[in-house]
Amino acid sequence: xxxxxxxxxxxxxxxxxxxxxxxxxxxxxxxxxxxxxxxxxxxxxxxxxxxxxxxxxxxxxxxxxxxxxxxxxxxxxxxxxxxxxxxxxxxxxxxxxxxxxxxxxxxxxxxxxxxxxxxxxxxxxxxxxxxxxxxxxxxxxxxxxxxxxxxxxxxxxxxxxxxxxxxxxxxxxxxxxxxxxxxxxxxxxxxxxxxxxxxxxxxxxxxxxxxxxxxxxxxxxxxxxxxxxxxxxxxxxxxxxxxxxxxxxxxxxxxxxxxxxxxxxxxxxxxxxxxxxxxxxxxxxxxxxxxxxxxxxxxxxxxxxxxxxxxxxxxxxxxxxxxxxxxxxx
Amino acid sequence: xxxxxxxxxxxxxxxxxxxxxxxxxxxxxxxxxxxxxxxxxxxxxxxxxxxxxxxxxxxxxxxxxxxxxxxxxxxxxxxxxxxxxxxxxxxxxxxxxxxxxxxxxxxxxxxxxxxxxxxxxxxxxxxxxxxxxxxxxxxxxxxxxxxxxxxxxxxxxxxxxxxxxxxxxxxxxxxxxxxxxxxxxxxxxxxxxxxxxxxxxxxxxxxxxxxxxxxxxxxxxxxxxxxxxxxxxx
Lengths: 330, 234
Hints:
The complex is a heterodimer.
Chain A: H1 2-11, H2 17-29, H3 32-63, H4 70-87, H5 89-93, H6 97-127, H7 134-156, E1 161-162, E2 172-175, E3 178-181, H8 182-204, H9 206-216, H10 218-223, H11 228-254, E4 256-257, H12 261-276, H13 281-301, H14 306-320
Antiparallel strand pairs in A: 1-4, 2-3
Helix pairs in contact in A: 2-3, 2-13, 3-8, 3-9, 3-11, 3-12, 3-13, 4-6, 4-7, 4-11, 4-12, 6-11, 8-9, 12-13, 12-14, 13-14
Chain B: E1 4-13, E2 16-26, E3 31-35, H1 42-49, E4 59-62, E5 65-66, H2 72-77, E6 80-83, H3 95-101, H4 110-119, H5 121-125, H6 136-148, E7 154-158, H7 166-179, E8 184-188, H8 192-198, E9 201-206, E10 209-215, H9 216-221, H10 223-230
């Protein structure tokens, strides 16, 4: 058993899990074209969930805050971006890639800016009074989530909101028997860029060093002369902005959104954060990819099990590694 | 004027009063030792100085400046370093990253680093290792190294010899002697043998009150006083 465990660790350890999952699915699915389509869909979904979950993981790990209101940023990000895109539908309908790209950039920028400002407000007004009190955190952030959902309902109405996409992101690439939706490829690439950016900031900058140290021992960071409360605001704003960007991406993916979008995704987001390990960006990416792949493979192989698949995955991983796949604190 | 002064400090943790009336003065230079039994309030005293728990009432002054209600980070920036009992190292960061984090600018002075590596050679050997993989003694060395990687006026050190092998304790004593040539050390220690080798001045704390203060030489010579205050026979 030890020999297997050592070999597994030497070959890459938990980083191999998405590859192992894909290999098992390949055998079970049988048809390579279906497998490729499902794998790309799973990776794209995983990257979008990663965008939403990464901020929550840092907030959880660094600030020890259980923020159920995180879904509000996802929902608002989706609706803000959708509204900007709807307002620029003329640009989107044109064949111009430049105009379509500009509309998309403006929509995502609006979602990110909204996330930053709302994150600052949320941390200052709602979270700060309840630091170190998990019960009150749960109550107040769940309350905030309900208020946010109702606010979206009041502004945008209860009927599903249609989200236009730039024409260059419509359709699919056809390679032999394989069909890959262009938007999914785009979601994967954008998620990867955000991951690389976050990884660089966390591992190659002084701010990142402080965040990583703060996840382990906040008190000691303060004793070294740093105001961790100021770092908290920055991390919370970043997490909120990433959630809003994830919501905006998800809106373009679904093309029809409702105010309950954030709350519906929240279960998946929490599962990803827990199985990845609190405060770990690499763990969050791993967890998100596993959840994305598992959902798509099981949706194809055993549709009735699709909803339960992520719960089963979480239970299995926590039985194996109670602190998650790549916890930030050893 | 003393470097650090505590006057009638009372610190409550939740509904419990841990420090009732702590007053003592730490002169500049050398090692000042705070002795006491388990649960006497030694760690709480250090944490109160660092602003991790706020005393009320009472006052703490550093170089004449009232730091009683100051934020921990601001107290640290005045030139006070803290080595907690649990060492407080960041396990997922490398040895070098732990040291870099303790600098004000993010850059370590090469001469200073050379001096620190001279005191604790293991930290040079394992500079790229993640800190969680170090031994207990090496972790303690890293914790002390982090406190001295930049010049500090006062270093608060909480039970640095706890659980360490005798050879490491000896090395630590040598390092403290050298550090005390340029900084003042306020050392909390239960190992009286270690403390009396280093201390110039001392105080004994019991049940949240200072019950004795004076020179270490006199205290070390008075066996009856030691027995009475520490219930120890060294």
